[in-house]
Every structure is written in C-alpha cells, then in structure tokens.
Design goal:
The protein is globular and about 50 Å long. It is mainly beta. It contains no helices and 22 strands. The chain has a five-stranded mixed beta sheet, with no helix packed on it.
Amino acid sequence: QFSVMCLDRNTGETLWQKTVREEYPHEGFHPSGGLSNYSPVTDGKHVWVSFGSRGLHCFDVDGNHKWSSDLVPMLSFRSFGEGSSPALVGDSIIVVADHEGDSMIFSFDKNTGEKLWERARDESTSWATPLPVEINGRMEVVTSGSNFIRSYDVETGDVVWECSGLTKLAIPSPVISDGKVILTTGFAEPVMIAISLGGKGDLTTSDAVSWKIEEGTPYISSPLLYNNRIYTFDNLKANLTCHEASTGR
C-alpha cells in the first residue's frame, strides 16, 4: 500500500490516512531507504505527494482526494529506489523522473492535475529535488543531473541554460545563495559547483561558473546554506565542512 498520512504536529495523533495505490513493487530499494522516499509539498490548502512509478497525487489538507496522475514506470540504478520530491512553482507542480530508461521532467497544473508539458532528459537515475528560482520576473526550475545541470522555463518547459560539471549519481538537492545556484555530487568523484543565475545557453566554459570544488563533497545529504556559509558532509564520512558560499573558500 502507498499511503498519505496527516499527523497533528502537537500530539502526533493521526488525523487522516489515505491509500493512493496498492500494487506489488516492480523493483527493490536500498536497505537504508524504502518505497516512499519522496517528501510532500503544500501551499497550506492542498498537499501534493509523488510516489514516482506509483503516480502523483493531490489532497486537500482535510484528506479529500482531488486528483491523481500517472508518471512513468522507473528503473533505478542498481534498484536503489526513487526519491526526487516534487517542486511547487506558482500554479505548477514540477516532477523529475530520471531513471535507467527514458528520463523525463513533467509540469502539472496544481489545481486540476492537467499535464502542462513534458520534456525528455538525457540523464540516468537521479534523486535531487528541482529548485524553483525567479529570474527577472520569470520563474525557472533548476535540476541537478550527471550529464548536465539544467534550468527550465516553468511556463514553456524550454531549457534556458545548461552546464556540465557534476559527476555520477546526482542525489543532493541544489541550493540558492545571492544570485548563485550551488549543486554537488560525491559518489565516486566529488564536486561542488556554483553557477550565477541569469545566463542562457551552455554555460559550461563561461564566466557564469563562479567556483568549483573537487574534494570532500556529499554523496547523499543535501547542503545546508545559512548566512553565506554552506555546510556539507564528506561523502559517507563523519566530516563536516563549511565553505564561503560566495567564493567557495
């Protein structure tokens, strides 16, 4: 059973629980994870929950089902499982479905579940959650990926810019600091890269790449950004590192 549960934050009491899908999983998952690694998002009136291969689902905060939409059946790297959470951007819900098949990015109307657009992605399995950003009054959504970091126009689904530089298994989610987006990978080849927002086209060799670090970056955990400082764990080691977000120092 794939279910959505609402708890009272003060008491832990279950207020409601709804089952959205009952099916036998088509593949396994990493021992440290499960089949519901996605985080829900809310605007205070509705809640959107993705179960990846088991679809995207919308409820109001009282537990009334509003709509459901199928995504794509996903086959993850080494059956590690799925986990890129949906992003709420204005009236759109953005979902990334990167896997060992035909990877996609989708946009749905948050109120009706109507598919607004979909685009193919030349990416293998990733788990990073897309990041909404506002650029000169236009909303974009930045996605992490092993082949390319890409920023999509939320209205049209067109790629506004892209930049290579990350390595295999894009798991940590991007963060934004003072006009820069910072992304990281760290499975086998550690790297953390900062890209100035507002560019267009292929930014790989441009001045938009503000700084790059190639050691001590996280494999799984997302960075924490606070007051121009970015905190990361070193791969799977018990090492905490702090960098200056503006310079990478």
